UniProtKB/TrEMBL annotation:
Residues 18-114 form the 2Fe-2S ferredoxin-type domain. Pathway: Carbohydrate metabolism; tricarboxylic acid cycle. Residues 155-177 form the 4Fe-4S ferredoxin-type domain. Its cofactor is [4Fe-4S] cluster; [3Fe-4S] cluster; [2Fe-2S] cluster. One of its GO terms (biological process) is tricarboxylic acid cycle. Coiled coil: none annotated. This is Succinate dehydrogenase iron-sulfur subunit.
Length: 253
């Protein structure tokens, strides 16, 4: 479907609209345990500044109320609306329609490697199971401190990048190893382990490294950089994974 700019708006300063086609993957579970998978096309009149999330809302509110997808904050913080848009993992709330070549159908489908529940909604439990396994919390020993645990700016900078993770699963579900091996911890779990391994206040680094030294752990990474490209927060995911590998060998953290 070729996008066409609408006639000049009557009101001065109004934003022009154009027609775009969204091709959405539909996964429809049946009562008998079977499921139907198909692609549905929706034509919409949109603004260039509209996001894919706005277009999905327009479909749900005006054309097909059965369309199912996750979203919450709509500002790139909660990470709940991660999906494959034109074959790449993105957040629907951060992806502008004008940046996607609206002269062609824009494809929207669920992220890969996780079971699809309905339409664009996947079962995130395997993802969060790996996240929980690396113990994503501060581990300390001794008595409760009487004052704040202090760090220098340099100590904080050591793990600052990996604190940005919003657990959207974009990195993990863009990983070819994860697609073929659902037991692999995945980039997001390793990123969150990195956040604590290199935290000067934490005392559980050795435990986390032992967990990630498993055959489905950090050594499964093939350094394809898909995860880094997919991260909507700009985290250097592949670099973080390499730093965890190095710490595994040198025990320097």
């Amino acid at each position: 479907m070729t996008a066409t700019i609408a006639d000049a708006p009557a009101k001065v300063g109004a934003v022009p609209t154009f027609t775009v086609t969204l091709r959405v993957a539909r996964h429809l579970p049946g009562d008998d345990g079977t499921a139907v998978t198909r692609w549905d096309d929706f034509q919409l009149q949109v603004h260039g500044t509209d996001r894919v999330l706005d277009a999905l809302h327009k479909i749900k509110w005006e054309q097909d109320g059965s369309l199912t997808f996750r979203r919450s904050c709509a500002h790139g913080i909660c990470g709940s609306d991660a999906m494959r848009i034109n074959g790449r993992n993105r957040l629907a709330c951060k992806t502008l329609l004008k940046d996607l070549d609206p002269s062609k159908p824009i494809t929207v489908e669920p992220i890969k490697g996780l079971p699809v529940i309905k339409d664009l909604v996947v079962d995130m439990e395997p993802f969060f199971a790996s996240y929980r396994e690396i113990m994503p919390f501060l581990i300390t020993t001794g008595n409760e401190p009487t004052k704040e645990r202090l760090q220098s700016a340099e100590q904080r900078a050591r793990f600052d990048d990996t604190t940005k993770c919003i657990l959207c699963a974009s990195c993990t579900s863009s990983c070819p190893v994860f697609w073929t091996d659902g037991q692999y911890f995945g980039p997001a779990a390793i990123v969150n382990a990195h956040r604590f391994i290199f935290d000067s206040r934490d005392e559980g680094a050795a435990q986390r490294l032992e967990i990630l030294n498993d055959k489905e752990g950090v050594w499964r990474c093939r350094t394809t950089f898909n995860c880094t490209e997919a991260c909507p927060r700009g985290i250097e995911v592949t670099k973080a994974i390499q730093e965890v590998k190095r710490a595994m060998i040198t025990r320097a953290f």
